[in-house]
Amino acid sequence: MRVFFGIALFFFGHLISANSDPVIWSGIGYFVDSGKTSSIYPNLTSLEKELNLSKLLADEFSKNENLIIGGSENTSSDEGFNSVLIAVTSEKIRSTYRGINSLDGKNICERSYLLGTQVVLYSVSSKKILKSLPNTTKKIYRDDSKKSLCNNASLDSKIHKSRFAEILWGFDLPKNSSSKNLGDVLTALNLSEKGMLANQIDNIKKIKNVYEKGIQPIGVRNVVILEPAMKQLTGKSSGFNTHKDFVSKGEIKKEYKEWLGTMFSRWLSQFLKIPVVPYYEGEGLTLNLGTTFTDSAEVLNLKKPELSYGFDYVLRSFAKVDVGENATQKGSVWAVYSGMKFGVVLGDQPEDFKSLAKIPITQVTSRQYNKSDIIYDWDFYDLATQVGMAKLSENLVKQDKKWLKSSSEIPNKDFKKFSKTILNKVGYEK
Question: What is this structure's pTM?
């Protein structure tokens, strides 16, 4: 079972001008299998404790006149209020050796850091998620590590933690920063300036309270990987190696679909200005949250509501084309063939869907590189995938003729018609 363990030791009441009922702050937690929080999120759980992140957030929210900080002695989960939390949904590090820099002769070990969070508003009484605002950020570092040491374990854990801290706060730390002095650098003074935390803090301050009755839950209903893409991802198609991040023993891990669904949700939420139901690959989203409504942590099961309208993300295939080379350099283009469906959700089966819009797209990314560089194609396919999701979501609101010409596989008039339908159904407001 997918579960969620909250660590925070506080919560607050949040009065919304349009609603008299407060919103309770439930703290920080993690999407993770039971008992595996520290092993799945070693850096984030450690940072949370070392930086006293719960207190920093409480102090930040207390500065807002619309937020009231409460305690277990005066507000409880039994009173039936809605509640809000920050959920950590992903923490990933990947180390890839890129060869030797021809200019200075140093090794290039590229390490990417992926961090995902969601602001989740839910009903305490019914245990139903009412809305979610996702944010996923990736940051890449280049280290001088030889091939045998280009792995996650060879780097000091203090460095890993400081790099995730940079994503949370949104700026580069001094080179001599370590876990021992991170708390001196990352203070409440710069907590909400920029970065992932600033974004989610802003989302919480602006969140509008909603109630179960009258809302139409919207989200990514399904992620479909067609057979050509599946063979390519698993290395069973000519010219393709296995996607090491998301394939194990010849099978695509469910984390890949969850990554696709979460990323698509993020861009839809951002450009369509709508809250979305969190995407989870499996039978509904059930979370366990350790709270402080009482003196001891209690388990709170949260469930996804049934969607009224849903988006299906369809991944069709990939392709790479070399576009030129000379004695020392080479150029390549990586293409991702994907698309989306939008419609009315009639049930919980894939066929229980009334399609209102269908938009196939092709998104490419290109790069010129040294022939001595070690190129990992899936990095570029993943980048093109994300760009395609973002551009598709953006063009639903405002069409870019240049992008439509290069990437949309349907006539512009059809794209505009589908966009109008989608915006109308999700209640988009400029």
Answer: 0.77
